[in-house]
Design brief:
The chain is elongated and about 50 Å long. The protein has 113 residues and is mostly helical. Strands 1-2 form a two-stranded parallel ribbon.
């Protein structure tokens, strides 16, 4: 999740612990940190049709930029394809790959709602 490097809630701290282990290894990495997924709204609200309400695990004044899970998978696919299809003769591909290795990228929605 976004802000994993500043984790203040338990699941983000678990993620950050794993990220630190990887950072301190010799494993090349690219961390993708998607913000709250739109589709996960319903995992917090399994009875939303019966109750006609949607509740969130955030404060009343909290705003968050939701991501569609399909967009997250498109970004993951792009990263995997970029690494898989490296072409040493193409400087453009090399520059993209260098810019992605050992980096973390937040993935956010277009607007905080």
């Amino acid at each position: 999740p976004i802000g994993t490097q500043f984790a203040t809630f338990q699941i983000a701290e678990y993620n950050r612990t794993i990220e630190r282990l990887i950072e301190n290894s010799d494993i090349p990495y690219t961390f993708l940190r998607p913000n709250f997924s739109f589709q996960s709204i319903f995992s917090f609200n399994p009875n939303h049709k019966q109750t006609r309400t949607i509740k969130f695990p955030f404060g009343l004044e909290s705003r968050i930029s939701y991501c569609d899970a399909r967009n997250i998978t498109n970004i993951i696919s792009f990263c995997v394809d970029t690494f898989r299809n490296q072409n040493p003769s193409s400087s453009d591909d090399d520059e993209i790959n260098k810019g992605m290795v050992n980096q973390a990228f937040p993935i956010t929605g277009p607007q905080s709602l």
